[in-house]
Predict the structure.
Amino acid sequence: MQIQAPDIGVDKAVVAEILVKVGDHVAVEDSLLVLESDKAAVEVPSTAAGIVKSILVQQGDEVTEGVALIELESESAVEAPANEVPKSEVPKAEAQTVEVTTQAQVAPAATASQVIDVKVPDIGVEKALVAEVLVKVGDEIEAEQSIVVVESDKATVEVPSSIAGVVETIQIKEGDSVKEGVVLIQVKTTVVAAPVVSEARPTPVEAAVPISATTGEIEITVPDLGVEKALVSEILVSVGDYVEAQQSLCVVESDKASVEVPSASAGIVKAIHVSLNQEVRQGIALATIELSGSAAAQAVPKAQPTVAATATTTVAKSQPVVASQTASAQPEKLSKEQEIANAKVYAGPAVRKLARELGVVLGQVKASGEHGRVIKEDVFAHVKTRLTAPQAAPTVQIAPIASGLPSLPDFTAFGGGEVKAMTRLQQVSVPQLSLNNFIPQVTQFDLADITELEAWRGELKDGFKKQGLSLTILAFIAKAVAHLLKEEPYFAGHLADDQKSVLLRNEIHMGIAVATPDGLTVPVLRNPDQKSIKQIAAELAELSQKARDRKLSPKDLQGANFTITSLGSIGGTAFTPLVNWPQVAILGISPATMQPVWNGKDFDPRLMLPLSLSYDHRVINGADAARFTNKLTKLLKDIRNLLL
């Protein structure tokens, strides 16, 4: 059979990507290729299961509705040629023989009627309007039959039913705004339970088939991790545990990084098939999850095993076999924040599904497709990078650093004490802070006159507040320091491993220390030299809130080449901040105070801001540090100097 180009809402489109190759086995709804117009891209799904016999188009070809794209050899023709003959054409004696043989292999199949929700799939946009409802209550529909047309501002898509049956209710109407997961219709259908095989030993694929309509099992296997093999470094669940969908089951580790493997569905852990330090690769079974109720029904795979298919030959045609009806169960979603980030990315449904399965946020993936589209290879490359990239702060350095101090003395004779654990953030900071013992550090102090700057900030503050932004003096300081770092690149550099050269960075990424209930954390402000004061103020507020809410990602904390830490209004006159290796400088800000300043004739009251610049003396000379703080005081005294 041939798979043809569907109606994609435009006169013609270009084949942007071919997702399969000759010889591949595809199931119903598996994406075959990507068609792209000048405004949108659509992944074309297979309308049947089978083997790809030939690919009739090439990448770059222009196609229209009805053009043949892929030729499939039906699954039944490959696996069971005898089944191609209609039952009515089989001689009566032969038909009886087939039925007797089948009954000897399996027990009679049970049927159960149930109502299933058909929801809006991942259509690649956050929301769309219902342009047309194509079915009505009471209609008998087939799987893949279009049921509604949804329309965004750039494209029109027909949404197919994932199951066959009778339309029980319609939950939406024309003009409704819908998004992924919204129920469109309810379909009443008959589920045929997988028969109990008495003699045939199930293959690995068969083992994943639920044993009935109300209970079942699925097998969780190692996904494509982007590397050939990895070790099981930690098992996070036990037999008998109840797990949620997307809950991590185990941690697999390559030589440089680790990845948590999630469960595809909720259920009870019935068996764990791996052990600690076992070497695993893609496709190896990790665990068996026992499902119940509707979850079990949704776990039935699209392509049924040969034994089960043979058993259904004894079922009357009037009883619809819905082996693939619930196979369209969507993988569990990422967090709400990740969903919002993913919705802004140009990627097709199959790529989004793959990203959810691997726990990848598409916004973090580098796109290589046409017009910035993320393709499957980009997702695999992203995961491979995570597994093979060196980690920022190797924990192997903890032991030699901690061993430099003797054990605590016994305080029993002096009233004793109570051991209280530090916060997790404090604990992970210990090895990083201990690196400061190896840095010959000096601190340069200075005072900046910010009288005019503070007056200008006061004028702007109310306007920013109406826009929901808090304008602090830190936004101006970050902008001034970023400007200065372009002139003084050594302050944003790193001492090379050979101790004979300095790595000068091409971009400015500034760490901003934020105090949280758990301790001090340092999220990174990206490219402040390229942003306005308003943009910097907004990003500082966002980073600070994420830090306090414990929602910072690892990426938010990486890559800084200079740090600013501020005491705000807490108090103090000056301090010596610790250089955060591998950086070579850090600027400390103390609370500003009104001070008398001699103008040549008398004393003027001026708002003076204390600056404390700590630096690695191996890279920065004292004169360089004094020049840096002096330039900074001039920028802050008259911020217009940034324009010169």
